Amino acid sequence: MNYRTRRVFATTLTLLAVGLTALALEWTRMRMGDESTLSGWTLIASTAGLYLLSARKQLVGPRWGPVAMWMQMHVYMGTFASIVFLMHIGWPIRGVFESALAAVFAFVAVTGMLLGRLSRTMPKRLAAIPKDHPLERVPALQLAVAREAHQVAMASAEHGEGATLAEYYQRRLLPYFQTPRRWVYLIVPNGLRRRSLLRELNDLDRYLAEHGIQSRRSLSAMVQAKDDLDFQHALQTRLRTMFMLHVSLTWALALMIAVHVVLVYRFQGAML
């Protein structure tokens, strides 16, 4: 099956599972059964299925299927679990622990959706950059570009018209190369500062002779290289942070669900 057919099939299967679950809960309610127990164990089973993706990543070998397939299963199973969660909780939510459990589940669902969105869009955005680098190498490459830009700017000061370029470097480019981007850029990376600096550098050509123009072109290339590295660092840091947050919340959710089950059955035992 192609991608669109698989997506339609998986969506239909998920909606069918939701419909069957809703019918089962309604059937239990009409017969005066405990629908919260049914929805609770359905939620536990579907939530446990979400941990299969982590287990698959630990397994080596093609017989278990590609990780991408397991990722799609994770997405649709997470959607099913989120809908069952809305069926299971009572409104309004009462109790401190129950409110905390519901909040953690909601945070896991939201971070999962954001993580899936980033996983799909980030490769396309990184493909626009000439060369992709691992996150661990980016700081060293940023430092290398900053040192090279400093050498070019200082060398240009030895020439008469180069003083203009050196003064501009000291005033505008040195903070750009030497300081990290602000947290706003990490959330919404953009090329506004890059375009502004390149435009200002191009305007300096009227004051420069041939050697100064050559230095200006070198600095322009380094501005672009620094911006590409900043862009990669922002995207990869955002993805890694979201992944770590999602995983930590997921394991916290597992512990809270276990406590919740124990409390529910102890309360039912006390009532009997």
TrEMBL record:
The chain crosses the membrane at residues 40-55, 75-93, 99-116, 243-265. The keyword Transmembrane helix applies. It comes from Aureliella helgolandensis. Keywords: Membrane, Transmembrane, Transmembrane helix. It comes from the Bacteria. This is Ferric reductase like transmembrane component.
